[in-house]
Amino acid sequence: MELCLRLFNYGPNLSLFTTENIHGKTYYTMNPDIKYRYFSQVEFSPITSPENFLTTKSKDTYRIFCLGASTTVGYPYWYNAAFSSFLRDRLQKQFPNKKCEIINLGMTATNSYTAVDIARELVDYEPDLLIVYDGHNEFYGALGIASRETLGASRWIAKAYLRLVHVRTFQLLRNTVSNIASIFSAPAPAEGRGTMMERLSRGKYIPYASPTYYDALSIFKENLHEIQNICNDHKIPIMISSQVSNLRGQRPFISGEYPGSSANTKELYHANFEKGVSLLNAENIDSALVVFRTLLSFDTLRADVHYFLGKCYEKKNNPAEALKEFVKARDDDQLRFRASSDLNDMLRQNCTRENEFFVDIEQLFKENSRDSLIGNELIVEHLHPNAWGYFLMAKEYARVMRQHHLFATNEEWNNAVPVDENELWQQRHVTEFDERLAKRKTEILTASWPFKQLTVPVVSSIKPEDALGNIIENVVRGDWNWLDGHKQTANYYLQRGEKENAAKEFETIINQIPDDVQPYLQLAHIYLEMGKLEKVKNVLTSSLAIEKTILAYRALGDIALNQNKPLEAVSYYEAMTIFNQSVNEKLQNGYLLAFAQYRAGNNELARNQLLLLLQLKPDYLPAIELLTKISKK
How far apart are CA 247 and CA 331, in angstroms? Predict the structure, then answer.
């Protein structure tokens, strides 16, 4: 049966990578169908990495793989604002002559089961470093203990499943059971609607220190150890990061039932809670503190009470106490979308062997937040950084790499090109389109459960005259992808005569999808219209490394000729002869070659070239005139 199923290609291809031939070279790229390893109950199509890397790794290439979930992906942005892209751009700036591949393998709505499953295969792809940023999704991510895509609390069952899912007979059995079960069972309440957060987790609340809470932490610890052991066995350096989340700006999602058994007690507790909030809003901080402390005496695990106590201390300019309460509020939140202190402590304590390096991203964000209270200055909602936050993460990863002499020797790091942080930030490949796209995605996310208890999410409408907003709306709805959105935005800017902004769109496309030659040519054309000839030359020269085109050679030849560099022009014009051309094209381009040879003092070569043109068209006047001029000398 297995042989027959394979013969007839039953089921999806679950390989980690697929191969693709680009301009005569074979590359690996992340397989979009890998999602079927982890999602079978909930329909989901996570975006997968656009990075390609050569199937045959050169000896001078340093290869980094990044593992994790939506923060690794760069949500609510696309990959161009992920820490992996910022890190790649930073390293290329510092080491222009060194080769570094950074492949982002993050996948939204997954957890450490996915990370360890992928890590197990990565050893065959010659990694020089693994960066793991994972932990927020441990409860609700695919195969998580409280997820709708779960196999329960048994880790060995989950691991066996991840092995068996590659067997086509098992896929057939799984699909058959799933189809039969769907006939006799009602769909999950959130199925078919709502965000992925809602569909995976709604109704699955986990009190602090409950058996489910500790089971999940135990699974995470074992998965983390397995990833570390894989790296240790194959001598692969690994960087493991603490998890950062919004403390100051995110009220707990679920605080649990009000304490007390009687309705009157619950009603009184609720009334006093609302009284405390009113006192806080009225700036009557001391009275609010008394109310919240009293409430906490009834239930020390009330996350919302801890949160508002933190707000009180923040108002009293006591950030140390505020931080304690905000952290307690996050840890006691029964909807576990944010990694708790226990999980972060586990991450901190488990990098003990050689080639295991801990990167404290949470501490980094504290140091860059007002009063060390992480809030919306760096986090867009409950846990995803904004572009500046992702930029800081990349900076910290580079710092740790330098500290431990990863990627380059200590001497090479000392001699690296100095980085102007402000300049690097200003040159980032994140445009207004990306910022507005992230803002819109965040608005849609936070309009839904659990941020708001609305049956139908309500978001602001896009005005018809807001052309950029309507482009973004098409991307959000899935009518266009990220690449389409940037191209449409570039066209919008060109119609408005905003060439600088249009150029930034194509620069961003090239930064993320460097193997398509067309954006290079379009960018060069814009630079040419702006009179930026050096940039035109740089872009076209880069394009030739991707794909040789007659347009690039012609433009480079014209520029060289105009800059009085006839020998350079000759080399470009000669390169055009390998392309199929019409008679008129042969005449025009051949004449330019002859003229460049004439300007370079090679009259005999120019004369021979002109005679060839006259064989094509005996009355071709430009060739006759130049030939006459040469003959007179």
Answer: 10
In angstroms, rounded to a whole number, what is the distance separating the alpha carbons of residues 274 and 291?
10
Q: For residue 584, give both structure tokens.
A: 């008129």
Whether the CB-CB separation of 327 and 198 falls below 8 Å is answered with no
Q: How far is CA 447 from CA 3, 38, 185, 214, 458, in A?
A: 49, 27, 30, 31, 6
Supply the pTM of this predicted model: 0.95
- Residue 293 φ/ψ, nearest 5 degrees: -65, -40
Alpha-carbon 558 to chain mean position: 39
Inter-residue contact 50 to 60 (CB < 8 Å) = no
Sheet of 129-133, strands arranged across: 99-104, 61-68, 129-133, 238-241, 356-359
386 CB burial (10 A radius; 0-12, 13-18, 19+): buried
- Dist. CA 319–CA 332, nearest whole Å: 20
Q: Which of 49, 130, 71 is nearest to 337 (CA)?
A: 71
**Which 3-state string (H, E, C) describes 443-479?**
HHHHCCCCCCCCCCCCCCCCCCCCHHHHHHHHHHHCC
* Residue 34 DSSP label: G
Give the pLDDT of residue 186. Answer: 55
Length of the chain: 633
Helix ranges (H only) for 479-602 are: 482-495, 499-512, 518-530, 533-546, 550-562, 566-575, 583-599
Q: 455 near 198, Cβ under 8 Å?
A: no
Phi and psi angles of residue 413, each rounded to the nearest 5 degrees, phi first: -65, -40
Taking a C-beta distance cutoff of 8 angstroms, is the pair 547, 23 a contact? yes
**What gap in Å lies between CA 95 and CA 277, rounded to an integer?**
54
| pLDDT, tens only, 530-546 | 999 999 999 999 999 99
Alpha-carbon distance of 425 to 411, in angstroms, equals 26
Instruction: Report which DSSP code applies to 379.
Output: B
Amino acid identity, residue 2? E
C-alpha–C-alpha distance, residues 386 and 77, integer Å: 8
Residues of the chain with pLDDT under 50: 189-192
Listed residue (590, 548, 549) closest to 573, CA to CA: 590
DSSP class of 186: P
CA atoms of 308 and 527, how far apart (whole Å): 54
Verify cis geometry, omega within 30 degrees of 0, for the bond prior to 618.
Answer: no
DSSP codes, 318-377? -HHHHHHHHHHHHHH-SS--S--HHHHHHHHHT--STTEEEE-HHHHHHHTSGGG---TT
3-state DSSP call for residue 598? helix
* 589 exposure class (CB count in 10 Å sphere: 0-12, 13-18, 19+): buried
The pLDDT assigned to 395 comes to: 98
> In degrees, to the nearest 5, what angle opens at C-alpha 423 toward C-alphas 421 and 426?
110
User: How far is 155 from 140, CA to CA, in rounded Å?
Assistant: 15
Contact 122, 130 (CB under 8 A): yes
